[in-house]
Amino acid sequence: MEREKLEKLLEIACFAPSAKNNQPWHWTVVENPADVKRMAGMVIDWMRSVIKKYPQQAEERGLPRVVEAWDGGQERICRGAPHVIVVHGDKDYVLGAEDSATALSYLELYAPTLDLGSCWGGYFFSAVNAYPPLFEALDLPADHKAFGAAMVGYPKLRYQRLPLRKQARINWI
Ligand SMILES: Cc1cc2nc3c(=O)[nH]c(=O)nc-3n(C[C@H](O)[C@H](O)[C@H](O)COP(=O)(O)O)c2cc1C
């Protein structure tokens, strides 16, 4: 994909609101699909270590199924996407998670206007913070933390409808 397109997407994401207009987000783009694949493998390495050390927690997060799928040839970490975008910032900034999640939501909402598809990479960004080899592979500053990640590419499919949503849980007072 043209770098300009990813740049445009990130420029749009930066229009997200943030506390005090602090805009605390930094972006790391894994541009090379081969690197995305290699890093997906690192997420699996991390999952294997969690399964070994904390089997119950691993079960709750559904990690054994993802690893089994990987061993059977199915890539459920980055789902074959060509690029991954990681949003990160000062690990001690209290609103880093909120502001970054908002920016990533802007990114996801605007992606289709550029004919792009995106998907939150929850497994990916959890592994960035928990697994130092992946943190280092991404060359993140030592005082940063990943607040989110998204896979990005041209979508293969066009969905006719959204996955079902629960009714709004509202308390009128
Ligand atoms: C914080 C967060 C983490 C997520 N992590 C993943 C992930 O690791 N892999 C994945 O395929 N989808 C992931 N998703 C996408 C959700 O599964 C998806 O948004 C949800 O099923 C609703 O589908 P929709 O966004 O297509 O409407 C994540 C979404 C969020 C908000």
Helix and strand arrangement:
Elements: H1 3-13, E1 26-30, H2 33-53, H3 55-60, H4 63-71, E2 83-90, H5 96-110, E3 117-120, H6 122-130, H7 132-137, E4 144-153
Antiparallel strand pairs: 1-2, 2-4, 3-4
Helix pairs in contact: 1-5, 2-4, 2-6
Structure report:
Helix 1 (3-13) crosses helix 5 (96-110), helix 2 packs across helix 4 (63-71) and helix 2 (33-53) packs across helix 6 (122-130). This protein has helices at residues 3-13, 33-53, 55-60, 63-71, 96-110, 122-130, 132-137, and strands at residues 26-30, 83-90, 117-120, 144-153. The radius of gyration is 17 Å and the shape is globular. The model has no long low-confidence stretch (mean pLDDT 96). The protein has seven helices and four strands; from the N terminus they run αβαααβαβααβ. It has a single domain (3-153), classed as NADH Oxidase. It is of the alpha+beta class and 173 residues long. The protein binds flavin mononucleotide (FMN).
